[in-house]
Amino acid sequence: MLEPNAQFAEPFEVDMSGLDMAAEGEDFSVVVVYETERGSPAAEAGIQEEDVLTAIDGRSAREFSLAQIRKMFMQDGKEYLITLKRGEKEVQTKLKLRRLI
After folding, report:
1. Containing domain of residue 70, as a range?
2. What CATH number is attached to the domain comprising 51?
3. Neighbours of 92 (CB within 10 A)
């Protein structure tokens, strides 16, 4: 039986970036983009599949766990400066989050 609890009235937020990411490497500290949802903030920012997230607002992506990054990307209206490794190139873009549903 399901019954309302203390958090019942709180909003349930989900990803607002449009990114499907995974942690890779021996220590799971490399964050790789697996998919970018069409029409999402990530797509509008030019983030592509296989991009490697290297920094968020100038801080190394290795400072964050994948769970922390996902939580950061659940803040409507928040904007981040994202640094990516795309092949041998470094790419910077601004990612402005918004609700997708």
Report:
1. 19-95
2. 2.30.42.10
3. 12
54-79 burial: b if 16+ Cβ within 10 Å, else e: bbbeeeebeebebeebbebbeeeeee
Query: How far apart are alpha carbons 66 and 19 in whole angstroms?
Result: 12
Alpha helices in the chain (DSSP H): 41-44, 66-72
**pLDDT digit string, tens, across residues 70-93:** 999 999 999 999 999 999 999 999
pLDDT in tens, 9-25: 877 778 999 999 999 99
Count of domains in the chain? 1
pTM of the model: 0.86
Has residue 82 been placed in a domain? yes
